[in-house]
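Q: My labmate handed me this sequence with no annotations at all. I'd like to see what the chain might look like in three dimensions before we decide whether it's worth expressing. Could you predict it?
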Amino acid sequence: MSTDLNAPLGKDRKRKVKVGSSSGRYFSGGVTGVFAALVIGLSIYPYIQPDKLPPAVLSDATAASDDASSQAEKTKLPGIATSGRQDGANVERQVMDDGSVVTKFSPRGRESSGPLIIQAQTTQDPRLAGLPNDDLIEETPEGKLPIVGPDGLRPFDYYARPWSGARGTRIAIVVAGLGISQTGTMRAIEELPEQITLAFAANGNSLSRWAPEARRNGHEILLQVPMEPFNYPQNDPGRGTLVSSKSAATNIANLHAAMGRMTGYTGIMNYLGGRFLAAGDALQPVMQDIGERGLMFFDDGTSVQSLSGDYAKAYDMPHAFADLVLDEQVDTEAILKKLDELERIAYRKGTAIGVASGFDESLSAIAEWAQEAGGHGIEIVGVSALADNAGR
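A: Here is what I predict for the chain of 392 residues:
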């Protein structure tokens, strides 16, 4: 696809088909606060917390990194100040016999042979899913912004929806544009299977209410930020749009204003943005900020000129592209055919990601398809499970 997705975000539409509720609940991520220590040798080697470098000094820090410099040179992207992870920890996820998921964090770059202390933490306990982790929040005038925790824990890891860990055929579906229509948003949260990822429009209403509700219902969530399309301003994505002709400071300020509207999300998704995603000088500081905050970037795949994947590799941050827009034709039967096509992509590649808007027809088709997906040998997962450079 070479153009932006022009369908309106989740606008009110006449209800036609009631979506059936999904079966099963969000399984537990394990016991919260597990701490494991492995001591090797006779003395204790302290676990040193990496400091989170502000953007102003990133270029100095990365000058000392051969990997960062070589990667930036290799990609030849404008404005690259750093590549390489900003979380400062090795992250390893393990699915236990009882179905719980344990995430293990260990310091990077150990050169001594002293003992190693490993801290193991789980993803968020589903019973607390509506609450943010205070260690992953920065209080700012724009609101509560996501940050990497002092131990290297990223919001991407903490808020990610657990999955089985099996390497079978996996599909993620992102339903976007939520928060615009109250009735459509409520239906998506309450009636879609909890494995479906929900993306909330930054210009939506009552996000501080809808985001925790979606989390409590087991959904992984994204924040959808408006970005400049090629026919801007005739086609205006709305207040706070990131625009390629504006300064980096202005775009970052608008990004942070959007980020502060809700908490608990694993990443940022574009709304439109064909021109902005192709403008390297404008996109670079935005991608850098998203990566430094421990978030993924999910690209809806509607612009073949998008550079988001290149910058994600340069900054070693989680990233995913949608393989297919499911509801370019807003008709239930047409959407079901697109879902069949998504299955074929997944069988061929092993994984696939579909994206849709919060129309009644889309919700009905996705819910119907999801009831049969397991019988087709497909595991529906949160979009974070299919991200590149996830570091898991």
